[in-house]
Amino acid sequence: MSAASLPYGGPSLDVRNVFWLLASMAFVVAPHLERTPAWATIFCATMLAWRAWIAWAAQRFPSHWIIKLLTVGVTVATLYSYRTFVIGRDAGVTLLIVMASMKLLEMRTQREVVLSIYLGFFLVLTNFLYSQSIPLGIYLLFSVWFFVATLVGFHRVGRTPTMRERLVPAGLLLLQALPLMAVFFMLFPRIQGPLWALPQDARAGVTGLSDSMTPGNISQLIQSEGIAFRVRFEDRIPPYQTLYWRGPVMWNFDGRTWKASEFSRAATLEYSKAEKPVRYAVTLEPHGKHWLFALDVPATAPPGSSARDDLQLRSVRPVDQTVRYELTSYLDYQYGEKLAGILRRFALSLDEDRNPRAIALGRQWRDELGGNATAIVNRAFQFYNREFTYTLEPPMLGERDPYDEFLFETKRGFCEHYAGSFALLMRAAGIPARVVTGYQGGDINPLNNELIVRQADAHAWTEVWIENRGWVRTDPTAAVSPLRVEGGVNAALGPIGAMNSLIAADKFGVLSRLRYAWQFANSSWEQWVVGYNVERQRQFLTQLGLGLNIDWRTMALWLIGLTFLIGGAISLGLLVRDRPRRGEPSLVAWKRFCAKLAAAGLVRAPNEGPLDYLARVTKARPELEPDASEITRRYIDARYGSGATANEIRELRRRVRAFKAA
Amino acid sequence: MLLDARKPLASPIEEVIAQAGQVILGKEGQIRLAMACILARGHLLIEDVPGVGKTTLSHALARLLGLDYQRIQFTSDILPADVIGVSIFDRDSSTFRFHPGPIFAQIILADEINRASPKAQSALLEAMEEHQVTAEGETRPLPEPFFVIATQNPLHQVGTFPLPESQLDRFLMRINLGYPDAKAERALLMGEERRDMIAHLKPAMTTAQLLELQKAVPMMQVSEALLDYVQALINHTRHSPRYAQGLSPRAGLAVLRAAQAWAMMKGRRQVLPEDVQAILPSVVSHRVHGSADAAKGGFEAAKDLLGNVAIP
Fold this sequence. Notes:
Oligomer: heterodimer
Distance between the termini of chain B: 26 Å
Radius of gyration of chain A: 35 Å
Strand content of chain A: 5-15%
Helix content of chain A: 40-55%
CATH architecture of the largest domain in chain B: 3-Layer(aba) Sandwich
């Protein structure tokens, strides 16, 4: 009876093997659970439990009608949950998971087991659509190991193997694959840019700066431990207070919200004074928007991006995967002395009806100081310095005149309050002003001297336009809390967030060192594994001495050559390990005999003696009896008896050669 | 069929087994193992509850092999002298005369050996090992052949002195008789009295024949390949974490002898891995101790051993 016609799960597939497969499936699907809809999670768990019950209690498999019905059901449910079909990443993954779990209900034979395991490997891959972090990588490595161990169990002849007997051979198999994997990783021709675009929904939920600023939204961002980007400087890291990372520049103001303007235009970067250059490379985490961050002021726009006339760098593609770019910035600069009339109007525009007291104060300063811009800025700084408090928990401000309330009543605020109100005061005083958002400062990892800029370093400052000097950075937050600009948010406000509090409490610095080590590992992983693109590959191969202009054909040749070399080395090793010991030609002949029978489906168990094997063979294939028993008799005589002469061995060999089982 | 040409050596053995099988029903495997044990000049330990036919087995074997038979019932107050014998002053000749104990017989059933004190146990076990007893300064050889079947109640019974591992090692094999299956039990219930059946048994071989067979056992061909297999088995128990203690060299020798006896009973001159596999559970079950799962018992550990070691 063929296994396919068996109605029950029990006799054909070993229960423990099935449980291994189910457990591996559950393991690989687990990271998806937080993303898939609840119905899919419950459905998947039910399918696994059902299959486990079928195997455990030797129950009947569901009829194909039930499976067809379920298929239609989950398809409709997926369609309903996502309003789309397999187009989106989430919908596709969900459908794959529920279908894979349903496939288990059809799993009766070895062939279908193999299919399910391959599906499992595919599910491993889908996890990488969501994250490519080190922990997930390790987790998925374990999933692969479990699946291979399951495969080992299903292919074992005879007794069901123990856990050790599964995991150890599976681990060895993976280790054997390791050199091949490394070669493929290093040499497989990389494609410029992603092969296919990540679907839209991949970008949901990334934190970062937005293109508008309302009092309160940066202080929310500051609670985040997330990394915005990492910077590696070619030389020394510049002084902390010069580390202004320019992001979106806000021109538009409606009395409450500052917005990035559509007025900024593509421009070439030209400075009337550009000194103190610093060279550095930025590894930017995906944030789903277009801008790239650069130290004020960038010399050129990196490839794939363009510069705006307000010095913003905008990437052509949204930053939806980690990008790395190299830049030069000038720390000492002067630019924008000529301000076109229309831009000047925009930089002065304000809604006269809102925040009237602030506007009145600005006008009063202008009149008192006779329009002297420098004097007005200084007056404003004194104003802030005297009465204001820097705090992460500012009071709520009203909808209509929030800056009036802030400037004259609450007087407690965060950088966006200061930047926003300062720009408003300047515009009222007749000085063109705009708000710049971005990051300020960063955190130096002593292990690799890398600057890590977090969301917590988000900042907002202002730029004012002064006759003959152009756009000048003015940071009112520095007037209120110089510590913020010199030592970061944590220095100014004390530790923010659970992690920072822990680190501050840890007197011996173990935690912070651990965190740095982890960031170091992460950064290397980002740069050399996830971010291993065409550039990196070329750089790496050049370091290996494979030539600077290695093209993909040469790479492919190397790849093929190395694949054969490694495969050959491993095969040779296995051959040498398993070669029959010399001086036992009877054993060689016997193994050949066993191999012929194995090819015909009668595999000799490793602990099966010759007579037992013969009995089993003749029972299954009575027509083989005469030849097989003669060979066995000769083998027993030669190996377990008094030995065999060269002639007898020759005869045994001849008979084995002539033996046909298939 | 295969290897039939070399059978004559085995035929009286087959006769013994066939006849014993008529008395002890449905236990052919155990009878064969007991026979192999005798042929290999080893001793047999039967661990089982009372009333499953231990006495019947030993008595029947004694009758069929034409050997004299003694039964020693061990109790907690038995003394070594009760086993070995004692010298008594003979007034007529004014000398001490040795009165041999029950151990001076060819087949001995040492019943419930674990109820005796260790001192009495060791008297028996020494006799088993040396095939001679020393009493009052004089060494007296035991008759040949000399075969002890000891029985032991399962250890959870009250008032027993379990045999230590070192003593267990002196038994070549340990077997369980177990309950008969339903068919055998019915035949047993309906058939005639076992005692009468034993009384009517005729020896199937002479003592000389048995001694000759015993001498022939070590002559059975053991090839390098088979020694490789035996060594692989022993090594596995020594290195695998599954076993608390590996097999001793004496255990290795026991495996080989028993396998040789088994091959002889199968009518073969060469010892094959199958022979080793047939006797291994009985030979090693009381010598290995699974470390992981003590309750699982030696038989399971021995079967695992067979499953885990490939034939080289």
